Amino acid sequence: MTLFLILVIVAMVLGIIGAVAEGLFYLLVIGIVVFVAALVYLVLHIRRSGRHHRTLR
Predict the structure, then answer these.
(1) What is the model's pLDDT at position 36?
(2) How many angstroms separate the CA atoms of 30 and 15, rounded?
(3) What would the DSSP string read from start to end of 1-54?
């Protein structure tokens, strides 16, 4: 879960810099890609943690 938060923070910082700084539009695009990657990571993490394998004794 820490990785998700770090990815979201990085995406926000890159997005803000890309939107504010002139000529750095590519940082905004990279921020969007990182944010989407964070969402995909979160979905995969929730799916994996939802499965509980019980061992038979």
Answers:
(1) 93
(2) 8
(3) -HHHHHHHHHHHHHHHHHHHSTT-HHHHHHHHHHHHHHHHHHHHHHHHHH--PP
**Chain center to CA of 37:** 5
pLDDT band of residue 53 (cuts 50, 70, 90) is low
What's the whole-model pTM score? 0.74
Cα distance between residue 4 and residue 35, in whole Å: 9
Distance in angstroms (rounded) separating the CA atoms of residues 16 and 2: 21
Burial track 10-35 (b if 16+ CB lie within 10 A, e otherwise): bbeebbeebeeeeeeeebbebbeebb
Distance, first Cα to last Cα, the chain:
32
